[in-house]
Amino acid sequence: MQLSNYTRILLNMKSYLLLTIIFLSVKCSSIEPIAYEPKVAPIMDGILLKNTELQKAELIAKGKILGPEGLDLDKSGNIYAATQDGSIIKINKNSNEPELFANTGGRPLGIQFDSNNNLLVCDAYKGLLSIQANGQISSLTNSSDGLTFKFTDDLDIAKDGIIYFTDASYKYKQTEYLYDLMEAKPHGRLLKYDPKTKITTTLLKDLYFANGVALSKNEDFVLVNETYRYRITRYWLKGQKKGTSDIFIDNLPGFPDNISRGSSGDFYLALFTVRNERMDSMHPSPWKKKLVASLPKFLWPKPQPYGFVVKLSETGSILETYQDPTGENLKEITHAVEHDGYLYLGSLHNDRIGKYKLKK
């Protein structure tokens, strides 16, 4: 069948318009991505085989909170959650009803109680904060080496009070975290803050989206998640390797978010979702990423709704996984905190907290 001249003209115009849009989009995109060759994602078998353990989890405050990204529990067992509207929500263990504890005016992420019962908060926009029991907020630090934090993310506190925390990206703020993924450059830092001297020190820089933080049981090393390299880096605090770093575990089956130490010294790693095949295939091509970054976000690769937590040994071996492949009960898990035989599970966008009973 032959096309009419009019049809040919229309097709040529559409093709020209499409090419023009692509050209302008790439030209106008503000990010400068580089090529990156991700390792082939691990096969989901053996210890990684799909299971439905997290579908058994109890749901707390369902529909009453939004984005409880970071969690901690006080000595009485009450839950505290950092939510999307800038609030720290307290959920009484007896009623499971949320109430406002404080509002930072930013976006609180990782939270943890110190030995004085102050709640320390990594606020993506405000830096490292401390909140007293009466809700009074004070700023501890918001910069290191003359570089202001852009994306303060997660923390862990040592026995001597030293706070280890991350600035996920010095270039992109919390609402732009996907640009950091597309650009594939190391903008993250691992830092420490000494409350006695009030000095902030950069321990590691050039990390690929520095996210969760966890100290080992003996505090001889601290772990930091590099979300956009699917790995965890270990920084040595004691011993012959003090001041050096190495890879704790590499080529994870998903995007590592926060990490916490369990009562036995093992670690609970929250994976935001499983690996995205479309994203991995785009990484070697900077122009493709530049194009996608310029498009409306509804056209970007979407995270698969999936609930995923990995239990790791102190040597970096995978011991167990807890999953919800449907994402219907729990998805986009960002924090897994062990308390009295349960895992409490937070999420960046979900409207609930999971409570999963661990096997003895």
* Low-pLDDT segments: 13-28
Q: Total number of β-strand segments?
A: 26
CATH architecture: 6 Propeller
Number of separate structural domains? 1
CATH class: Mainly Beta
Strand content: 35-45%
H-E order: HEEEEEEEEEEEEEHEEEEEEEEHHEEEEE
Sheet/helix structural class: mainly beta
Q: Rg from C-alpha positions?
A: 22 Å
Number of helices: 4
Question: How would a crystallographer describe the biggest sheet?
Answer: 4 strands, antiparallel
User: What does the average pLDDT come to?
Assistant: 92
**Spatial ordering of strands, largest sheet:** 1-26-25-24
The share of residues in helices is: 10-25%
**First CA to last CA: what distance?**
71 Å
Q: Which term fits the overall shape?
A: globular
CATH superfamily: TolB, C-terminal domain
CATH topology: Neuraminidase
